[in-house]
Design brief:
The protein is mainly α and 505 residues long. The chain has two domains: 380 residues, Growth Hormone, Chain: A, CATH 1.20.1250; 53 residues. 79% of the residues lie in helices and 0% in strands. The chain is built from 20 helices and no strands. Helix 2 packs antiparallel against helix 16, helix 9 runs parallel beside helix 16 and helix 10 runs parallel beside helix 16. The longest helix is centred in the last third of the chain and has 38 residues. The chain is globular.
Length: 505
């Protein structure tokens, strides 16, 4: 359900733009409301699940996710959809964090644990891999509403499976909910995303802009203070001294500096290249299907070489895929075929990285604190995803603006260029809508070239940033994590440190 929700919604954004009259910024917030909402509950859910029972919180989150999906499907306005997506994100984040904690508790031995997380990766990959074509097919056959409504039906089946298959578990030492940490972290992330997304409207250096930046900084400082002074924080900074955990956490961030936020925008590029909704969904399969078949190989890589090698190798592969897409989009005739090799390689890299990251983060701490560990992992993913959805949109528009300034004769007012760039990024503008372009003999070609140029800048950003994070993960992790089997043997012999002595700071 969570994977399908991530990958199916981007393919219907062009439809939502038309049907709900949503602007490019509203389309960004339809995705960002979900991811920001996830960050508000992840670590809080870990604490609640540790205290009240992971199965109990899991069941409640599934039910709320189904109800929120129903509300999303019934929305008739972009703002209502954004608000209901926030509720869906909160319940989805709780659902995700509980399932990771449940898996970590029920499967603790090395080979069995590897198989369990590989199976989790495959099921997650099914939602991700087939989400684009499922979303496009639903729009073509029925209506965009069923992209959301289908989860209300799936939730019923999922609850039945969870009631019979999930063992109850809890942490007897979990006592209270860290309200101060939740409020300060959520405020900081929201302000950063809002500043990047809306900054061009109110001015990045205006009083409003500087006030938002100050609020974000002060909120984050407040979060750090709240967590360091709490007797039992939801974000235990001491786990960052575990090299394996910190290296894997950088892997979580790396995937969301590149692969996931870019998937939000890829349908816009395919639509601009002339593909309809179904064809764009099929084209996206090259990007997402490897996440379905590759996770078992990622777990084997983890078992053999450890997280210090497996995770950076996966991140490096993602970056190589992005640079291949950048090269493929630089020719005279850009199409799905020129982008496919890079899409496939990026998807392979994601499949190699995703489940090893989850496995290492939860295996590096005591099993009783699995909820907290998975909360930190998923929070790192969602925070970096929310920020990079906004940041990639900003980079895309900046790249389009740069192309327009060089291509249009006589120059345009900066506000006019920004307005045109946003509409181009939305994928719906026509040359005839702008007198400045209609005078050019190849006005529509200029629009497509501007969009492709913007996407090339985004691809370059995604590739370089994930390579930097791959290097950071390698340096921090080293060979500290030697694979689940050997790590578990060491953990049983040294339960107090929960990691091999050579890997602790």
């Amino acid at each position: 359900m969570f994977g399908l929700e991530i990958s199916s919604v981007p393919t219907i954004l062009p439809t939502l733009e038309t049907v709900l009259h949503a602007s490019f910024q509203q389309l960004q917030w339809i995705m960002n409301a979900y991811t920001i909402a996830v960050t508000t509950v992840l670590m809080a859910t870990g604490t609640l699940a540790d205290r009240y029972g992971r199965k109990r919180v899991f069941l409640v989150s599934i039910a709320v996710f189904g109800l929120a999906s129903l509300i999303c499907g019934l929305a008739q306005d972009a703002l209502v959809l954004i608000a209901s997506r926030f509720l869906q994100g909160m319940s989805g984040g709780a659902m995700l964090i509980c399932q990771v904690a449940v898996l970590s508790h029920q499967f603790q031995d090395g080979p069995e644990r590897a198989r369990a997380f590989a199976a989790w990766g495959i099921i997650f990959g099914i939602g991700l891999g087939f989400g684009p074509i499922i979303g496009a097919a639903i729009v073509a056959v029925s209506g965009w509403q069923w992209v959301f409504l289908v989860h209300a039906l799936i939730a019923i089946v999922t609850i039945a499976l969870a009631v019979t298959g999930v063992q109850e578990s809890r942490d007897p030492d979990a006592e209270h909910l860290d309200i101060a940490g939740i409020v300060t972290l959520s405020t900081s992330v929201f302000c950063v995303a809002f500043y990047i997304t809306q900054g061009a409207d109110f001015g990045f250096t205006s009083v409003i802009g500087l006030a938002i930046v100050a609020t974000a900084i002060l909120s984050f400082v407040g979060f750090v203070l709240a967590e360091t002074r709490s007797a039992r924080p939801m974000f235990d900074f001491s786990v960052l001294r575990i090299r394996a955990f910190s290296g894997a956490l950088i892997g979580s961030v790396g995937m969301n500096f590149s692969f996931w936020p870019f998937m939000i925008y890829l349908p816009i590029l395919f639509r601009a290249l002339g593909y309809d909704s179904v064809a764009a969904g099929l084209a996206l399969l090259a990007y997402t299907l490897p996440t379905l078949v590759v996770p078992p190989f990622g777990e084997r890589l983890l078992l053999r070489f450890g997280g210090g090698i497996a995770i950076p190798a996966g991140l490096f592969t993602i970056g190589l895929g992005f640079l291949l897409m950048w090269a493929g989009s630089g020719g005279e005739h850009v199409s799905w075929l020129t982008l496919a090799p890079g899409c496939l390689l990026a998807g392979i890299g994601l499949g190699l990285t995703n489940t090893p990251v989850t496995n290492v983060t939860t295996a590096s701490v005591p099993s009783a604190r699995a909820g907290m560990a998975s909360g930190i992992d998923m929070s790192a993913r969602m925070i970096s995803l929310a920020i990079n959805i906004a940041l990639m949109g900003f980079i895309l528009i900046a790249g389009i603006c740069s192309w327009l300034r060089s291509a249009l004769p006589g120059g345009l007012d900066a506000g006019r260029v920004q307005e045109l760039a946003r509409q181009i990024a939305g994928g719906s503008v026509r040359a005839a809508d702008f007198p400045e372009l209609s005078q050019l003999p190849a006005g529509q070609t200029v629009l497509q070239d501007a969009l492709i140029h913007g996407f090339r800048v985004v691809m370059l950003y995604g590739g370089i940033s994930v390579w930097i994070l791959a290097l950071a993960s390698f340096v921090i992790s080293g060979q500290g994590y030697l694979g689940p089997a050997r790590h578990r043997r060491s953990r049983r012999g040294n339960e107090a440190s929960c990691v091999p002595r050579s890997t602790s700071s």
